[in-house]
Amino acid sequence: MNWCEFISEVYAARQNVPGMASKAVFQPPASNEDVTAIELQLNVNLPTDLNSLLRETNGVLEMDRTDDNDWFVNMWLLWTTSEIIEQNRHLRRATMHPYDDNRRYCPTPMNCCFLQTPESMESSSLIPSMPKGLRRRA
After folding, report:
1. Same domain, 22 and 69
2. At 11, is the secondary structure helix, strand, or coil?
3. How many independent structural domains does the chain possess?
4. Which of 46, 89, 122, 128 could be bridged to 51 by S-S, CB 3.0 to 4.6 A?
5. SS3 labels along 92-132
6. What is the value of pTM for the model shown?
7. Range of the domain at 129
């Protein structure tokens, strides 16, 4: 699939909607080393679609236009490989300090979408709602 073309077509269709002036800005492709770094450093196998998307563009910014025709960065639609690593590491480290006792918020693993205890992060078990393609390697 040509991801840049697909995303560009979505944004082109939005240009015909009044008040929806935005565009996608594509970064240069991620290198093999960048994509491999995600898998090695986060201990995951990337889904095929995400892998091919990153090899086509290492990040996608959404730009919005003001009434004065000035463009500004609205948000990242797709993080760069380095940002994917950094944000995942941050979220994995975060144990909700000073709220370490997350059990009152997540009484069972099935009720907890984003939080894991340090013990569960050391094991091979995952949060049940994690996408299949992002499961930890055995």
Report:
1. yes
2. helix
3. 2
4. 46
5. HHCCCCCCCCHHHCCCCHHHCCCCCCHHHHHCCCCCCCCCH
6. 0.62
7. 94-133
